[in-house]
Amino acid sequence: MAKFLYRLGAVAARRRLIFLGASLAVLAAALLLAFGSAGSFAPGHSIPGSPAQVALEKADRHSPEDGGVSGVVLFAAPNGAQVNDEAVVRQMHAVVARMQAEDVVAEVGDPLEDVSADGRIAVASVSFDLPSDSEVDPVLQEAVRATGGVYNEQFGDQGGRVLFGGDAFEQELEPFGVPETIGIGVALLVMLVTFGSVLAAGLPMLTAALGVGGSAAGTLLAANLFDVSQNALTLAIMLGLAVGIDYALLIVSRHRAQLTRGAAVAESIALAIATAGSAVVFAGLTVIIALVGLTLAGVPMLTSMGLAAAGAVAVAVLLALTTLPAVMSLAGERLRPKPSSRAARRELETRKRGMAARWVDAVIRHPRKVVVAVVLGLAVVAVPATQLELALNDNGSAAKSSEPRQVYDLIAGAFGPGVNGPLAVLVEGGSVAELNSTAKTVIDTVESMPGVAEVNGPLIAPDQRAAFVEVVPTTGPRDGATNALVADLRAALEPIGTQTGNYVAVTGLTVVGLDAVDKLNNALLPFTVVVVGLSLLLLLLAFRSWTIPLKATAGFLLSVGAAFGAMVAVFQWGWLAGPLGVPLEGPVPSFAPIIVMAVLFGLAMDYEVFLVSAMREHYARHGNAQEAIRAGSRNAGRVVVAAAVIMITVFASFLFSHDPNVMPIALALAFGVLVDAFLVRLTLVPAVLKLLGDRAWRLPRWLDRVVPKVDIEGHDVSENRSTVREPELVG
């Protein structure tokens, strides 16, 4: 592979204008298509084939007019008044009439039918003439919100107000904004410190920007053909930005190191792509495998997130191998540090005995103590992970200042938390009399169950072939008690269906969400086995060692345990929740753990490949295991540190998104990368390799004959080239 990449780098450097022009042309075309033909994001967390989803689809067929998108409008009475006062009723009816006049609104309920016990709050449903699997366009949302102006003008200065919430009025977050800006700014600062050159620092930013633009455009276009979650775009941007910068950073760093030692520009570019580029390919493949593995969960939302992020990583790898060498060729000699410059001195000093070498020397002097300290320390940090609770987010986990969250809280306070997530029991089959009889049995059974606040119905469907019973829990949708109630309902209602011969099922969006949680929990172990297994094979090919892949995986488990521990401590226990702006303490999003595992596993293998490939390169040339540890840490340590700081910054910056689905993932990834890069890869790995000695780099003879040889270090390309001669470690 190294020989192929060497030729690719040489061609890209020689035909730089063609390669760069092609990249820009493809990006421009993708962006133009995306701006003109972008698809819409798929809402919800449906699980095809799950019991609740099947029942929900049946219910939609029986009552198609009730299956569209819906929301709620909430009227708060002015101070000292109630919603049934004549003046307030008049203004409420005026708002309802204005809403009903909007073309997109199918029906608005009577707010006087749902009034709080104290008479201060009234709520009405708002149904839209849109399919249930669609979202209300923000422009249409604003048009409907504007109808409340007459009420707010009349009572706003007296404390009265109209608020809109529910699924139809969920706020769509901007796909690019403050988080990405912060991440880019800090990443640029880190690279300026790393390279000491504005030009060198700008190259990774350029290719990362091209990659993010291309992958974002591709995700938007894919939404025309497939169900794509908005979180898929956010994850693709987050990961594409992080790995795009890191992969380019590794190659540019290698190129400048070779230029410092006197290599010709064209030769250095080709060699950097052959060596550092090989590491990028293997690292990228590992991340892609982990992300594509998310499809194993069988959850459409998770599938779209995994494939979009995998596409972003693939684009980052492709640009690092094609566009980056073209841009480096255009930069030419300007990337070569001047002999007297700080960058050149730092490169030469690092190659003698820099900070990384001194740190590794300290580690390998006491390897057993280091291993015990790191493992025990990370085990303690991971303890909170044993209390991990999962749920699907709703408007109750949105930012407290958002309108949907305010509606959610007001409804919970006025009518009870269960009103925000009512359950439905569908009875299907038989005559109307039989439906009523079965529904009555359901009601008699459910009313006496603990955890039930209210039972309403039965309501016969328009086609008279089904009946509906509404069950309002005493707890909210994200409460564990609601999950327990659903399980109890299913157990209690199953005999009724068997005895009557009718179809009886519990459904509703809350139940669909709970089924999604169960599906994700059940998929976690198979996902881990498949992804880790494939990645172990990839690392076995890369390093021709059975201990390196096992060590890498064990280190990952420590990192992911610490990441989960931090996620629980902040989002469930509330540690630092205030300073971090956490909108609601409680269960984390059900899809967060599996996404964190996928992304963090890929990134952990990135650092493993970057670091260990440098060690392997030295060992292949000199055969000294201890010197290989020092040389690899010395050569790759500064790049790994810079790459990790950039990753941490990019992920941490997404805490400013205030998206409850993204924040736990961002925190876990930022903390996980911090642990993995500095404690696992730069501390634990050298200590373990010191204990293993030469055994770390060997395969059993029978396995050595079977495993194909892959040149990840570029040894076949560089062994006879004086420009890459590696000086011995001094000191």
Q: What does it look like?
A:
The chain has helices at residues 2-14, 16-37, 51-62, 86-101, 138-146, 149-155, 178-195, 198-222, 230-260, 265-292, 300-321, 323-331, 342-353, 355-365, 367-381, 403-415, 432-447, 480-500, 509-543, 547-571, 577-580, 592-622, 625-653, 663-692, 701-706, 715-718, and strands at 70-76, 105-108, 121-128, 161-165, 390-391, 423-428, 452-460, 466-473, 503-507, 588-589. With 731 residues, it is of the alpha+beta class. It folds into three domains: 2-40 and 174-337 and 346-393 and 514-724, no CATH class; 66-169, Alpha-Beta Plaits (2-Layer Sandwich); 423-507, Alpha-Beta Plaits (2-Layer Sandwich). The strands form three sheets. It has a four-stranded antiparallel beta sheet, with helices on both faces. The chain has a four-stranded antiparallel beta sheet with strand order 7-8-6-9, sandwiched between helices. Helix 7 (178-195) runs antiparallel to helix 23 (625-653) and helix 22 (592-622) packs antiparallel against helix 23. The protein starts with a helix and ends in a 13-residue tail after the last helix.
Rg calc: 30 Å
Could you say how many structural domains there are in total?
3
Read across the widest sheet, the strand sequence of neighbours is 2-3-1-4
Mean pLDDT: 86
Q: Note the main sheet.
A: 4 strands, antiparallel
Estimated share of beta-strand residues: 5-15%
Judging from the principal axes of the Cα atoms, what is the shape?
A: elongated
Spatial separation of the terminal alpha carbons: 35 Å
Count of runs of 4 or more consecutive helical residues: 26
Subcellular location: Cell membrane
Pfam family, one: MMPL
Protein name: Membrane protein
Keywords: Cell membrane, Membrane, Transmembrane, Transmembrane helix
